[in-house]
């Protein structure tokens, strides 16, 4: 059951690129609309679950709010970069690059800083798996001179890759930050356990979601207004992308629950959450109609298999 719960983010997050493309709008409008959707879900989680179960003293603990808001700011950077990358590269190319970057950075960060990998054997197979993921991402983005011409007038390798790098760093910090601050002692063991002494940190991780959503909106507004310089902030496309935010938020809650579960752990939860590459890549081709040659499809299939296998190896390192 724990593994099935940990796979929910993969389905939700793998659909984000498809949903936001269907909703339309600029990268800025998609970013802001998504954060509004996340805000609705985040505050709903706090009001419906956290306050009744954990109590107001815990839900409004200043340290939890600091962690949540800062994590949300990092997320806003990651989301803005990802949406720009999708616009520049297309979802079928941008999704596997983003996925591979997050798997690699999150796994290394969780293993090296949070201590999820505890033996030389785990490190050996973990690094092999990371190499598989990187190779798989490369295969999914191999160009073909005979492929159907790109219809995307904004297509740019350099701008797209830079956006994805910024996105990866933002997402990595958003994901690792809550457990990192618990690791260094800012969040005490008793605070992480919650009012009822939960061993899996469920209260801590769900309590973060509300303030995190506020940080997401604040971060998105800053990025959209001052960096993207979007003029039509609250256009129709912005409100349509609230749906994108709700889809993402479902994955977010289950991802943090899985990361707090000792049976799963940070590195495994991060990896399984990125298996949405299968949904994102093939969904963008079949649903969004992004055109690929037969040669590209062969490499895409091989690449997705490599990423998935690498993810499976990382998620089972404790059993190797």
Automatic annotation (TrEMBL):
- Is Disulfide bond there in the keyword field? no
Give TM regions: 27-52, 64-86, 122-140, 161-182, 202-227, 239-260, 266-288, 297-318
Q: Write one Pfam family the protein is assigned to.
A: Sugar_transport
Q: Which domain of life is it from?
A: Bacteria
Q: Which UniProt keywords apply?
A: Membrane, Sugar transport, Transmembrane, Transmembrane helix, Transport
Any single GO CC term annotated in Swiss-Prot or TrEMBL for this entry: plasma membrane
**Places the protein is found:** Cell membrane
- For the keyword Transmembrane helix, the answer is yes
The record's section on SUPFAM superfamilies has: Multidrug resistance efflux transporter EmrE
Q: Please name the CDD domains in this protein's record.
A: GRP (cd23110)
Q: How the protein sits in the membrane? A: Multi-pass membrane protein
Q: Could you give a GO molecular-function term held by this entry?
A: carbohydrate transmembrane transporter activity
Q: Which InterPro entries match?
A: EmrE-like, Sugar_transport
**What protein family is recorded?**
Belongs to the GRP transporter (TC 2.A.7.5) family.
Output the PANTHER family linked to this UniProt entry. Answer: TRANSMEMBRANE PROTEIN 144 (PTHR16119:SF17)
What is the name attached to this protein's record? Putative glucose uptake permease
